């Protein structure tokens, strides 16, 4: 803040145009003023603006800036300023899609300020941060080590200096006492010298105490910010963002600051004894008391979150950790209680810090004892086998579904800290959870959680979320979730992301730029896709499940093109040799992968065809590699690689005869493309031992508009029964009923969901 203290008086002498250039609309002077200290402590100069790997670090700084502005707004008593600051925090969302631009803007601003101060004769070198630890490239904060240690060491040294001053003052008093009884004319100079030194040391003692209290306040503010950042990163990990869950460094920080607070309180008490009550002592005492309360109450964190989608009657667990566990007064065991609260109760909790009296759910096994583990030096309460017996839902608005209603688990207890006179009530809440009554609601409930984790703002009012978000932001969330769930290092490329945008916006133009378009919650998981009976998220989640269970190695090896539209496929394949193919996720069937290939037709022409999608059930019976090997009309993986070379690692070798004499069988996939003049669907036959039917079909592409012929969209076997061993069975059976028992509450939940979506 030192540079801003020098810069702010100079602003009145600057021309209006220069002020506008120095503090643009995207980063106005109000932000510079209110966040001066934080801005000057960051690592703007260490960023390489051409290195996009540092973008996660820039995004963390952006999130922190938004969060700090919101905190300043909440604490500001001036209503006008509060509204203004809240507006400024929302205005920073312009950097969400390009956080490196924020770094550039702030860095240039600070450089210009230094230049202007230099011209005014005020030399100001670039700020070198002490206690700010740059985040890692993966977006998680680095462990607090040397810089934090330096700050705490400085605090400890100040406390030692105060103690030395106290001891020196005591020694001087001892030396001056005999002089009061002796002839003062004998040693007047010596007494005067001692009195002068006594006054100097007394003033120094008081000044050191003030400095120490202020330094403690600054250091603890940084600690609280780090704890909040840890919680925020834990929240973001729900969509796959990497997260370091190690709390060791934060615990050490909490314990050391508690020790400093205790020592300063002791020194303050001794100072009052020596010098009597004074207003400045009272102010220091109030500050230390408030800092202690804040530290004690913010040291309770949910180490292991409960599942964010909880089914009633199902068991789950959670672990709560207390970072000051080693400072708890020994004696009666400390029992933590858990209760489920609504979104409205969570909001009131943040304003009043009072445990809600109304019970909205019957929670079983809701208590746990806080236990200390000497090996790990952690103090935790593990809630095992918790379950929600019944849930009381709030009145829903409009078309809101039960899977959109958010709850949370509140953990609270009363605790005694060594050296503190009275106990403290402490509490913390879990991440938002959605409570369901039947497994069929899980996909939609997970959509609610993903939207919340990906797009909620730091330090928000529980559990406020935006209704619309930029597509670029949505795309990053989808990519993180896909990579995390599939457990792959291969991300969605530009082609995949573009097709996803076409899908969610229902736009067929492959040249359109969707980057800044806004996507709504309704488009994500309330409205079904055009011509389909499922939402965008349900379709995308189906692809995740298929890839995770059947296609992870294929995807990671780069053998699956992934998300791509039929028009784009035609452009890619039309110039390739016959038999060239690529693998894409089906856009018409949930959880399917299809083969698109170019092949000849009877009149000498060529056409692009799509083989009926393979689902998990299909790939469980015969792997994708074996099916590709069997299909004779495909030879080259796009652009021109032999399939036998590319996929050979996935081919199954036929096993030798069994010892019991039975011959092994092999499932073979056959595709028989018909001539282009045919309007019927392309049937596929599979030979398994003697009788087995595995349908595979192709879709003819009209080369003028690249859309499938309507007559070819429905294979004949979908309307005709299939004869298997003399019996007649429809080949596409409805899903088997769930084995789970359905009580009245479950039935109501399913019907509610059905009514909303249909």
TrEMBL record:
SMART domains: STAT_int. InterPro entries: p53-like_TF_DNA-bd_sf (IPR008967), SH2 (IPR000980), SH2_dom_sf (IPR036860), STAT (IPR001217), STAT_linker (IPR048988), STAT_N_sf (IPR036535), STAT_TF_alpha (IPR013800), STAT_TF_CC (IPR015988). It is found in: Cytoplasm; Nucleus. It comes from the Eukaryota. One of its GO terms (molecular function) is DNA-binding transcription activator activity, RNA polymerase II-specific. Residues 555-597 form the SH2 domain. Keywords: Activator, Cytoplasm, DNA-binding, Nucleus, Phosphoprotein, SH2 domain, Transcription, Transcription regulation. It holds the Pfam family STAT_linker. One of its GO terms (biological process) is epithelium development. One of its GO terms (cellular component) is cytoplasm. Belongs to the transcription factor STAT family. This is Signal transducer and activator of transcription. It comes from Phoxinus phoxinus.
